[in-house]
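User: I'm preparing a small set of examples for a lab meeting where we compare how different chains pack in three dimensions. I only have the primary sequence for this one, and I'd like the structure in token form so I can line it up with the others. Please keep the answer compact; I'll paste it straight into my notes.
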Amino acid sequence: MGVRIYILLTCSLLLFQNCSSSKIDTQNTEPLRITQFKDLDSLLIEEPKPIAIFIHTDWCKYCKNMAQTTFKNQAVINTLNENFYFISFNGESKDDIEFNNQTYKYQPSGRSSGIHKLAIEIGMVDGEVSYPTFVVLDPNYEILFQYNAFLSGLEMLDVLNRFL
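Assistant: Understood. Below is the structure token output for the 164-residue chain.
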């Protein structure tokens, strides 16, 4: 009987430590820093870093899932904040974007549909743009990596670590 109580108390103590340490981890989270396209030129002059771009839409369930899981992962956040300029880009944005000495505009394809020309420029893989797409550019805006599907936190870390 004494051994059972000892095991029960030990397991309870370990469970309590795990629960309390996970609370500490979530309280010390740093938010993901998001860069705007318009700020890239000046930032790259000060400190050249690769550029990580998450191309998404409002209607894409995989994009939303990635935003709520992958980009909430503290290891992903730390890696992006320390080593990359991160841009979250809606591929259906109607705003004009100045990028790499060009102006990119929204291109309508129907009454209420269309795509941004910049999403086509940097997000096209095998002749099409799909969502979500994750792109890594070098500081000279050359495409180093494109992937057009959901990436988990561990998969994202694997991709990001290739460029460190």
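A couple of notes for your slides: Strands lie at 51-56, 85-90, 97-99, 102-104, 106-108, 114-116, 133-137, 143-147. The radius of gyration is 21 Å.

User: Perfect, thanks.
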